[in-house]
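Two quick folds needed for the group meeting slides. Do the first one here.
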Amino acid sequence: MTSRRDFMFFTGCALMGAAGVPAAQAQAPRRREVVVNGKRVKTIDVHAHVGFPEAMALMGMKFAPPQLTTTMQDRIKAMDEQGIDMEALTINAYWYGANRDVAEKLIELQNNKLAEIVAKQPDRFVALASVALQHPDLAAQQLEHAVKKLGLRGAGVGGSVAGLELSDPKFHPFWKKAEELGVLVFIHPIGTAELKNRLQGNGGLENTIGNPLETTLALSHLIFEGTLDRFPGLKICAAHGGGYLPSYAPRSDHICLTFPDRCASVPLKKKPTEYLKQLYFDALVFTPEALRHLAAQVGPSQLVLGSDYPFPWDANTVDHIMKTPQLTDAQRVDILGGTAAKLLKLNGG
């Protein structure tokens, strides 16, 4: 049997079953099957988290209290309830301050454990590797090993690395390797420490505003600093609908028209908004209207399902895709899983 210590997952609250009974004690729910136009659809969640206390201990960090963890059984029950067939697991980067030796051990441990989870439940999980991006040459090696030896499907990275933007030339070896391998890189914010004082107070603004803002900054720098021109084959997916960038993207075009000198140091090959068409975004924007707008800005072909599980942001990620009337059935099928299957190279995709 799998021990609780073997598979411990980040969560914001204990998963609950019917009538408030903890999920571990509740009767197993019937697996929800998502159907579009009479056909069963395989749904793939590209934004799902996991963590391992053994790895965190290498940096002197403690895992969440036992009451805030879930087992593999809990997670699969939650997936069944939500209508999610498969999750792509990632770990939020907390190791960017680690020296090379610690980072090497930590990443090896995490990626091996991710591979173990996938091996135990290959029909329910794939995984994106952790990489020590603060040591770019090592990160490139770790990515290649994870993909070619462990069968992982890409990498998860933070929105910045120890104060440096992802567009910094220091990270070119990693981006080059990701492009060479043709694998997905999932960008998830890890916090905007420089704004900590302004984000204090009620409303959890470090998360509510700070996390989407970090993603907005990361993507904007990748565009304006020419990273996406240098590595046009990159497959990048941004968490939380890409932050604020898609909602106000035309301003990125107009900065270059209104103040052309501010776009002169790194000449771009196309308008800033056109780069959104080569990025991917999870659909974690909470409402059909928000999803309609996101699809209008970046194109439905660039969207994938994301839940942020086990953080309980939205248990209806499937439903608001299904309920967005402007989407065609074919577009819904792609957002629910078809596009992710291609990005993750599932079933020959």
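Then this one, please, same format:
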Amino acid sequence: MADHRLIAATYDTVLAPAERAGLADRRRRLLSGARGRVLEIGAGTGLNLAHYPSAVERLELLEPDGAMRARLARRVAAAALPIEVHAGTVEAAPLPLASYDTVVTTLVLCTVPDLDAALDRIAALLVPGGELLFLEHGRVPGLRGRVQKLLAPLWRRAAGGCHLDRDVPVALRRADFVISDIERFLLPRSGPLLRPAVQGVAWPRVHAMAMASR
């Protein structure tokens, strides 16, 4: 994956209005459910680090972009939690299967090249009973949705691989995740094509079936 130096340099500044207007609080609410051994996919510059609760025993951060990792390192150095940072993508990084109690994605599933492959990998990384905590922007219905689809290829090239019109809940169900908690909302202080967002908790159906058969 190519490094995106300009995006990394401006990421916190661009998101700052949204963070102050409620996004930071949504991060805190989402991450209050994190526990045990946690893997965050696409940790970016580390905006989630301040919101992890004491129930997290070990935190691992996956960030394939070297420019982002350089900025992430500053927040990792100041964090109280034991943290390990990995390079690479979720599909290819040498992470141990069936090892994580919680996997976290925030505003990152739009950037993975193959969403279905990424979700399959997440399911394989979770322990039975483990959960995926997600907060993602995505597709909007109607006329704006058609505009999203039209602009998606250009946006992807300009915004570091971000797919403007992905439908994360549909993809989760297609990957045989059970969504146990979901909330749709509008990202504050964001453009009209970026505002539709979703936050929730999901777990692989196969894990529930395996646990029920014991």
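Slide caption for protein two: The chain has a mean pLDDT of 93.
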